[in-house]
Amino acid sequence: MAAQPASTLLKRLVDEAHQTYEMFAHDYQQAAREVAAVRRDRRIATATVSEITFRRWTSGKVQTLPQHPAPLVLEHMYGHPARALFQPAPEASCQPLAVSTIEESELDMTARDAAAHAEDAASLTVPDISLDRLHDAILDLARTYNSTSPPEVHRKAKELLLDAQDKLDRTQVPRQREHLYLTAGQAAAMLSAVCFDLGALQPAVQHSRTAALYGQIIEHGPLQAYAHGALAFLAYWSGRPAAALNLVRTAQDFGGLGATARSRLAVIEARTHAHLGDREQAVRATQASLDIHHTDRDELHDDIGGEFGFTPERLAMSNATRPAPARRAHRRPPPAAHLLPSRHRPGPRPPPAP
User: Which of 156, 148, 232 is closest to 197 using CA atoms?
Assistant: First the structure.
């Protein structure tokens, strides 16, 4: 039979003093107040110890120091260095091995500890109907984006982000956490879009990075692609076309993208090539954006759509208003222009963000 590990000095001292939890807790709180007075640190005076912690400390198996201020309080109580209290008791190896007994109270405490832990884990969940409400709210906000004032979009998207973050702190159910990370990422993406529309580029960049990180946590390709596409467009408008091109290529490598997502990224790529003066690549990317067959779908760009979508009209406007170097490669107006009704034909105003 394998030898049992030697109990700690703290366990021996507690056993020798026949301290129950109630006695230990009383002495611990009294010692905490005395240590606080000596050290002139009022925060120590309120230190307490739970019954679960007491049982763990006196199990004889814990040999690592607890968190501050417990070491100071225990040293004051027993007159031994804290590290020694959690080490094997002196001469423990020389004492005869006693027949171990387990009191019924110890069995009850173990059962209560296990039940309490399970109940705590079970309580870390949120109602599924709350997740459905968040999904519906994101869908509505995305689809009414163009008919809602920017301040109102910002307010609603911020509320959705904070709500998702709050619920993430309240659930440990993997399925629910994945849903909430997706909702948080979508809300951050909406905040990025509205910040760009308000002319605040730096907050827009930060929100898109946040959306990309949430997408990375749950390995959600469409969300990561949308966020990186937004970052590419923001880099383009910040005068960094080379960085924009790298971001577009990163976005195009994510899996699970539908035709809408690929068209959007091809448009951003075409605009960036045109800005860099690469007419051939700009024309190629433009043609690619038009040649993608809209059969593949994804849950962000297609199923939610709205601000996350990329309609044929938006595609046409973006292609028809790209920088002049690429357009001069055509002997006639680009095909995209013929898809536009007269009221959508490109004019002097800057195009919307892809």
Answer: 148
Mean pLDDT of 143-154: 95
Task: Look at residues 320, 258, 254 and name the one whose alpha carbon lies nearest to residue 294.
Answer: 258
Cα separation, 230 vs 225, in Å, equals 9
Q: How does DSSP assign 139-184, residue by residue?
A: HHHHHTGGGS-HHHHHHHHHHHHHHHHHHHTT---HHHHHHHHHHH
269 and 245 Cβ atoms separated by less than 8 Å: yes
Contacts of 290 (CB under 8 A, 6+ apart): 315, 319, 335, 336
Residue 315 has pLDDT above 70, yes or no: yes
**What's the Rg (C-alpha) of the chain?**
32
Residue 8 has phi, psi (to 5 degrees) of -85, 165
Tokens of 314: 């938006």
Element (H, E) at 233: helix 221-237
Residue (of 292, 293, 286) closest to 335 by Cα position: 286
Q: How far is CA 272 from CA 3, 222, 224, 323, in A?
A: 71, 21, 20, 9
Query: Each residue of 209-244: pLDDT tens digit?
Result: 999 999 999 999 999 999 999 999 999 999 999 999
Question: Rounded CA gap, 79 and 67, in Å?
Answer: 18
Instruction: Please determine, for residue 349, whether its predicted confidence score (pLDDT) is greater than 60.
Output: no
Evaluate whether 344 touches 327 at the Cβ level (below 8 Å): no
> CA–CA distance from 308 to each of 143, 194, 275, 291 (Å)?
8, 12, 24, 20
Using CA atoms, how far apart are residues 178 and 195, in angstroms rounded to an integer?
A: 26
Q: Which residue has the tokens 């909406």?
A: 190
The pLDDT of 329-337, averaged and rounded, is 39
pTM score, two decimals?
0.59
- pLDDT, tens digit (0-9, with 9 covering 90-100), for 282-299: 889 888 778 776 678 899
The residue assigned the tokens 């059969």 is 295
